[in-house]
Amino acid sequence: MSASRRSWAAWTRALLLPLLLAVPGGCLNRQELFPFGPEQGDQELEAGDDRVSLALQLSGGLHFYDKSDINYVYVTTNGLIAVSEPPAKESHPGLFPPTFGAIAPFLADLDTTDGFGKVYYREDFSPSVAQLAAVCVQRGFPEVAFQPKSVVVVTWESVAPYQGPSKDPAQEGKRNTFQAVLASSDSSSYAIFLYPEDGLQFYTTASKKDEGQLPAVVSFSQGLVGFLWKTNGAYNIFANDRESIENLAKSSNSGQQGVWVFEIGSPATASGVVPADVNQEEAEYEEEDEDYDVVTELGLETTAPTTFSYKTLGRRGTDTYHVPSARTARRTATEGPPELPSGRTRSFQLPVERVSQQHPQVIDVDEVEETEVVFSYNTDSRQTCANNRHQCSVHAECTDYTTGFCCSCVAGYTGNGRQCVAEGSPQRVNGKVKGRVFVGNSQAPIVFENTDLHSYVVMNHGRSYTAISTIPETLGYSLLPLAPVGGIIGWMFAVEQDGFMNGFSITGGEFMRQAEVTFVGHPGKLVIKQHFSGIDEHGHLTIDTELEGRVPQITFGSSVHIEPYTELYHYSPSVITSSSTREYTVTEPERGGVAPSHTYTYQWRQTITFQQCTHDEARPALPSTQQLSVDSVFVLYNQEERILRYALSNSIGPVKDGSPDALQNPCYIGTHGCDTNAACRPGPGTQFSCECSIGFRGDGSTCQDINECSEQPSVCGSHAVCNNHPGTFRCECVEGYQFSDKGTCVAVADQRPINYCLSGLHDCDIPQRAQCVYTGGSTYSCSCLPGFSGDGRACRDVDECQPSRCHPDAFCYNTPGSFTCQCKPGYQGNGFHCVPGEAEKTRCQREREHLLGTTDVQRPRPPGLFVPECDEYGHYRPTQCHGSTGHCWCVDQDGRELEGTRTRPGIQPPCLSTVAPPTHHGPQVPTAVIPLPPGTHLLFAQTGKIEHLALEGSTMKKMDAKTLFHAPGKVIIGLAFDCVDKMVYWTDISGPSIGRASLHGGEPTVIIRQDLGSPEGIALDHLGRNIFWTDSQLDRIEVAKLDGSQRRVLFETDLVNPRGIVADSVGGNLYWTDWNRDNPKIETAYMDGTNRRVLVRDDLGLPNGLAFDAFSSQLCWVDAGTKRVECMSPGQPSRRKILEGLQYPFAVTSYGKNLYYTDWKTNSVIAVDLAISKEMDEFHPHKETRLYGITTALSQCPQGHNYCSVNNGGCTHLCLATPGSRTCRCPDNTLGVDCIERK
């Protein structure tokens, strides 16, 4: 009999005959589970319902489907291990498959509240556990030699079912115990599910959506795949009803009852998980070379005789299957998997690009009557209703088209098909609001988070009532004019005139909205961001709102009146825009019997983006323009309850005759062409004028920002720093000060002891002259360094040459903090001891003597003859000039002219000595580094400072963000981190210079000042102890040791605008970007400069930032031209688009599953999840100025080494790694008689 038939026979017997053929006493007992519990080092999941653990970082990494770089997993209460963080709305079991990658040994609504069970998890590296996992895998896959390096053990012990309000007495006291083990080697991963005897006592749990019961599911899911447009990846349902779940402990696919083994990550699992196919009874049967016929009487029903023809799975053969089902034998294998049970809906996105229709590839190892175990694959490249019906609302129809499917609400319901609600039914909208808003001219923002928003909509009247609670009264009145915050809900459910559609009919309540409010005559603007997530499990629409910016101050107790208005909405595929000008009247509280009243104006722009189904070409197109009519507006702030209320009455229809919009005035319809920082003033008919907003100058069509900080240097007062912003400015108190109620900076009152030395708040002299010593409490002492005298607060250099400490026959030269001695002419020695005799002349002295023909250095030079100048040490002066012609130039230490430095007569070039590095004094004001707490941090550069942001897993701890150190007067561009010495390195284009600072504290230092043009990107090889940087002015790439010495130019040709640069320390490779507008490219070379080649040339715009992840060996970049994030494995030609639609990315770094990039448009740090290609979080620093470089300060270095790791690779000077070797190089501009170059 063929191997494939024997394989199917074994699989069939495992499913059909668990009760008939089970060996007595052969079930798995609880003592045979993998060891678990606190004594094994397990972490314990927090007790409760729908809990999700923090990220469990995997040292070994996990392979799953076609991915091999999963470094985190999340454990949930509900019998599931997620390979990416589950969204909050999917924290309880719902529709399968979920949007995230999942491994589910028993997916059900489980509950550990009040001590009903525990969930344990850990990553284990012990040999005993690894061997136990290897034995299980070997049983299921006898032909595979597998030895895991890491094992994840997750145990659900005695967990209870969620029962809901009406508890089922039959489930009282029922508890389930089961285990999932994930074993991984370098090349593959396996899942082992263990179900002990009597471990599964219940098989369904109560639904949170209705009063029914939901069956448990044993399954795997790849989650959403795709870069911009997401679709469901492959998913495998193994068991999904009572009978199949019950048999998990009684049967097996690996030869041991209760133990099920699956290959989940390898080249064979790109399209689906591979199950083991060994049964404990296999040895008792002799196979014959013929089809295996099964006729088994099961209970009261008998299945018809069925012939199974099975082709082996995954690596054993092809991935094509023809397995007629025992229950549904008439359904062919190309019909797709059976429809999944209905459940709650969730948002989804449909692809817009056309895909040629292909034959779907559906793999079904379908159910049989006794066990009903299902193992189905979804690998269809064209999405159809058959495998996506659940994407539509339960009140919608699904229709297949040539390129995909579309959903449409049935009669009596309205929506976009994915989300449908009953026509005319009242709707509720719930959400959260957070904000950071400046009021009036205040320099201190009002910050609020987790504020509730509730809205009630009377749909058949188009009326919406919105309330935002717990708004601080210092802000509440000033937000009254912003009725559009709640007005978006009115647009969603506006009364529809015939042939026109409101927002819900178009978007289904799933869209992103960004609005910008500019208050005429007031500096600054307010940005409103709202994310509508569709209908939740309670039938309510959900919304998240964020407010940021500045609003005019409205006096406490005032009322605001807004006249009815109209607004034009312009429609294009997946995008809706509108802009308008609105007036509002503020009536202040009565004073002396008079209530002052003032009318103000603001301009409103908004963009709404949503996903539109494009497959139905016959669907009527949206009107290009619709008019929203707001017939009544009511706004109120309740000071006692701190509740902000907006009420609006809305309808949607055509542009009405006689309305201001009907005049098509450019100010109303958004075609005015005014500068984005200008107000459009409508005039008669279609006439208009443009007026620059406050804080800008210009003619309205072009407006330039006014730099208030330059024009009013003292505007912020003392102890404050002025930061210019577009249209406005902000004052920031220096360290140790904070804003008072009057808006001035006052000293921070803190009773805790302050280490003034560590914080840099002491008044000792600069570190080059004095030392600060902390003496406990809040006291310290200052003392001058050796070679200086004074009280420590003011130190003067001691002139050691008065009296001279040198030999009487020597010259004494005083230097800051020290001195040097040199024997006089005619004597030789070290300066402290001189004896008669001539010292050996230097090269410069010998050349002068040769040219002048005498030792008399005072003899006049012959006309036209160039004679070099020597310094007091006999070295060539770095600047040499020709006495006759007046030309000057720079020379190296051997007197050779440096190319490109010769100047015209009368001008001396700024030459730097190449004899020895110059002494670089620190900044005049101490700028001590504040030591970082333990852990991994993001470091990012902002003009004049570097900030740090702690990471917890991949989550940015935004409340803990602080300044690492200030660098006044500097513009820091690139950042790199040395994980060995915990040092951050940076480039500064204002100096220009390259510097570094220790994260343990102390003063930053400059390591390179000279021969720099515009240093931008910087990279670090922590193994070879070298730094590399790009210089966009000199168009070259250089390398140096970490202290800035031994510089060498690696490349100086075919570079135009080099910027980002990263180093692969283990691989010995360099990568850099060149944003040459005519020929942008990403290049690579070995670290020694050899094997240079273009890595990426096509489809680039302005490649700015570059990141190399040492853990996944993945190269990623951000492009401000294409506005994309892309990644690739450098050894492979294919690229992967991670995310599109970025604003203006500049620099990027990686850590774990995330990329983090800085953005010039939003002035923020944005986190992107590589696994799901989605922006996960955004951090806006308090100081809103442009962000530049970003890097990850790792808590420990990545594993690995290169040939420069030990003893500098045996090199005398520069050791430059290459793949599998190293090259010894000499620095530039040195003769290097003691330097040996070799490979």
From TrEMBL:
Residues 425-662 form the Nidogen G2 beta-barrel domain. LDL-receptor class B repeats lie at residues 982-1024, 1025-1067, 1068-1112. Residues 324-345 are annotated as: Disordered. It holds the Pfam family NIDO. Residues 105-267 form the NIDO domain. Residues 663-704, 705-746, 753-796, 797-835 form the EGF-like domain. Keywords: Basement membrane, Calcium, Cell adhesion, Disulfide bond, EGF-like domain, Extracellular matrix, Glycoprotein, Repeat, Secreted, Signal, Sulfation. Residues 841-911 form the Thyroglobulin type-1 domain. PROSITE patterns: ASX_HYDROXYL, EGF_2, EGF_3, EGF_CA, LDLRB, NIDO, NIDOGEN_G2, THYROGLOBULIN_1_1. Interacts with FBLN1. Interacts with LGALS3BP. Interacts with PLXDC1. Interacts with SVEP1. This is Nidogen-1. It comes from Chrysochloris asiatica (Cape golden mole). The gene is NID1.
